[in-house]
Design goal:
By secondary structure, the chain is an alpha+beta fold. It contains four helices and seven strands; from the N terminus they run ααββββαββαβ. The chain starts with 12 loop residues before the first helix and ends with a strand.
């Protein structure tokens, strides 16, 4: 099995956010950090080189593959912001329909900027994702 690249690091979340070159993306990251802290109740930690995670969980699949992953979080990338908020088990279509402009991946959302989405709906989605994940794997604080 390939090794999971998204490992917990000692990199500073504040330093990572401060180093974001684009002013709007940096401001969005500051706002998202506060929002994820509020909804999750967890302090952020860096996973890999770019993912800001809130909470973590250990998993073992039927295949025997196991690892540790973030419970929720985001990554401010150059082209967009990736939100890791849906574990991929439940259908969150009703919430997503109210969210605003986004693209969806298997277990993440892509937004261009925070102003494109309704942050109250985003909070609801983060909470729903965490609640769904917790029905499958115990979540630990980061």
């Amino acid at each position: 099995m390939p090794e999971n690249k998204t490992k917990l690091t000692e990199q500073s979340v504040d330093d990572h956010i401060a180093a974001i070159a684009q002013d709007q993306k940096r401001a969005d990251a500051v706002t998202l950090d506060a929002l994820f802290r509020e909804v999750s109740g967890y302090q952020p930690r860096m996973f890999g080189g770019s993912i800001i995670g809130y909470g973590s969980y250990s998993y073992t699949y039927d295949s025997g593959h196991s690892g540790v992953s973030i419970a929720t979080g985001f990554a401010p990338r150059k082209s967009n912001i990736v939100l890791y908020i849906m574990p991929g088990y439940a259908d969150f279509g009703a919430i997503l329909a109210r969210l605003g402009k986004h693209k969806i991946g298997k277990s993440c959302l892509y937004i261009n900027k925070l102003a494109d989405v309704d942050t109250e709906v985003l909070k609801e989605l983060i909470r729903a994702g965490l609640d769904d994940l917790a029905t499958r794997w115990p979540i630990s604080p980061t």
